[in-house]
Amino acid sequence: MDIKLHYMECGTGAPLILLHGNGEDGSYFVHQIEYFSKNRRVIAVDTRGHGQSPRGDAPFTIRQFAEDLRAFMDELAIEKADILGFSDGGNIALIFALQYPKRVDKLILNGANLKGSGVKFHVQFPIVLGYKLASLFARKSPEARKNAEMLGLMVNDPNIDVSELSRITAKTLVIAGTKDMIRESHTKIIAQHIPGAELILLPGDHFVANRSPAAFNRAVEAFLEK
């Protein structure tokens, strides 16, 4: 890893790593950090080029972020952790669980997707448009380049084939909002193809963990305590 990732840590016990979504940082999980740190070592990471973590020179891709996570866990001497990923963080968690199955205890995927087509059209279309526009000006404008990189994560990544999901060995919870920007059919496909995965749909939108933390935390805690 050519960079040091910024993170917040709270509590002691079994490690629970929190991975935020596109354009966010670890503070997205403010309600989860406080709740789960009562009996766990909760670590909320800022991914590369997000929050207080530097961009570095490596590719700006979900797969690179998964490699960053491996290096981060090595640095903190964490052999194995429960991982909760939201949105792009869920996509990172998916790739990580495929690449490093022995490093994941339990996996919680909140609003993850396998490819751009898993996002509802009215949400994805402006993202694709914005990406194409930003890409046009990326060479001349650092801000446009940054926008193109961020939007590119949602256009070109994570690009996981559904057949790969059968290789996930971690006990998995797939959790999303009933009005999520990820198509419900897509969320169900993810749950159906991960061996033994549980599926929970909570009333709310894509940001259900942040906006309905009580229900979200209860569901995740029940899964982790099993």
Brief overview:
The chain has helices spanning 30-36, 62-75, 88-99, 121-137, 142-156, 184-193, 208-211, 213-225, and strands at 7-10, 15-19, 41-45, 81-86, 104-110, 171-177, 198-202. It is α/β, with parallel strands linked by helices.
Keywords:
226 residues; alpha/beta; Rossmann fold; 2 domains; 7-stranded mixed sheet; 8 helices; globular
The helix content, as a percent range, equals 40-55%
Q: Tell me the radius of gyration.
A: 17 Å
Number of domains: 2
- CATH secondary-structure class of the largest domain: Alpha Beta
Gross morphology? globular
CATH architecture type of the largest domain:
3-Layer(aba) Sandwich
Content-based structural category: alpha/beta
- Counting DSSP E segments of at least 2 residues, the number of strands comes to 7
CATH superfamily of the largest domain: Alpha/Beta hydrolase fold, catalytic domain
Largest sheet: 7 strands, mixed
Total helix count? 8
SSE pattern, N- to C-terminal = EEHEHEHEHHEHEHH
Biggest sheet strand order reads 1-3-2-4-5-6-7
Please tell me the overall pLDDT.
96
CATH topology of the largest domain, which one?
Rossmann fold
Span of the ends, CA to CA: 34 Å
> What is the beta-strand fraction?
15-25%
